[in-house]
Specification:
The structure is a single chain. By secondary structure, the chain is of the alpha+beta class. It has one domain. Helices cover 25% and strands 31% of the residues. The protein is built from 2 helices and 11 strands; from the N terminus they run ααβββββββββββ. A hairpin with a 2-residue loop joins β5 and β6. The longest helix has 53 residues. About 6% of the residues have low confidence.
């Protein structure tokens, strides 16, 4: 019985195998790294959109409360008199379309904060937090402003404030991740013949760095801040 002589790989065959194996591993590694990078970029963009949507929702929810007075039903029924002190004096012009009808007050005021970019980048408002009616307490003044590429929420804001510097402010966006380039509040009044509605348009623009590029996102919302005013 004869044993068959075994032959191994030659040096050339071994080197070719190593080169081909290295190329395959390099291709797989490149695809893996590319997938991870794309996934990270997608997560960063999704986070930016989610953060901006959350901030916009917070502003919408809070601004809608502007001018709320807890004893409104009693006020409407005549058992409580006097102006709603949770509003500012209305300087809206031109005059109302119906003679003898005046609109005394409005729910919120828009200002420009000097530490933020652009005009009308701050809004101040009040609402009856404890539903007690009467005069507003110090903890019932609120606001939002753009400050050094961050959106900040304000509390303990006195009604006398006109430059958005009073009160206590806290950032609700992270400028290490998202840079807010524009926050603008635009008061609007719709004036049909029989009623009037107050609105605030909020324009928001932000940017974030993704894959050595700057991605910009814009959002806009139209918020009704008071019940419709019926003309008589």
């Amino acid at each position: 019985m004869y044993l068959k002589k075994q032959h191994g790989f030659s040096l050339v065959e071994l080197m070719i195998s190593l080169v081909l194996g290295t190329l395959v591993i390099a291709m797989i590694s490149s695809l893996y790294v590319s997938g991870v990078v794309n996934n990270i970029n997608s997560i960063k963009y999704s986070r930016m959109k989610t953060d901006l949507q959350a901030v916009m929702h917070l502003m919408e929810s809070d601004i809608r409360r502007a001018g709320y007075r807890g004893d409104t039903i009693s006020y409407a029924m005549g058992t409580v008199s006097g102006a709603n002190k949770f509003m500012w004096l209305d300087t809206f012009t031109p005059a109302p379309p119906i003679a003898g009808v005046s609109f005394a007050e409005k729910s919120a005021q828009v200002y420009t904060h000097t530490a933020g970019a652009g005009a009308n980048n701050c809004i101040l408002f009040m609402y009856d937090k404890d539903k007690s009616g009467g005069d507003p307490a110090l903890n019932e003044g609120f606001g939002f402003r753009l400050n050094s590429q961050k959106i900040e929420i304000g509390s303990l804001i006195p009604k006398s404030s006109t430059d958005c510097s009073g009160g206590t402010w806290q950032a609700i966006t992270d400028d290490n991740f998202i840079k807010i380039t524009e926050l603008k509040f635009i008061p609007k009044v719709e004036r049909p013949d029989k009623s009037r509605m107050r609105l605030i348009q909020v324009d928001l623009t932000a940017k974030v760095s993704i894959a050595q590029e700057t991605v910009t996102e814009e959002m806009s919302s139209l918020i009704q801040i008071r019940n419709m005013e019926m003309l008589r």
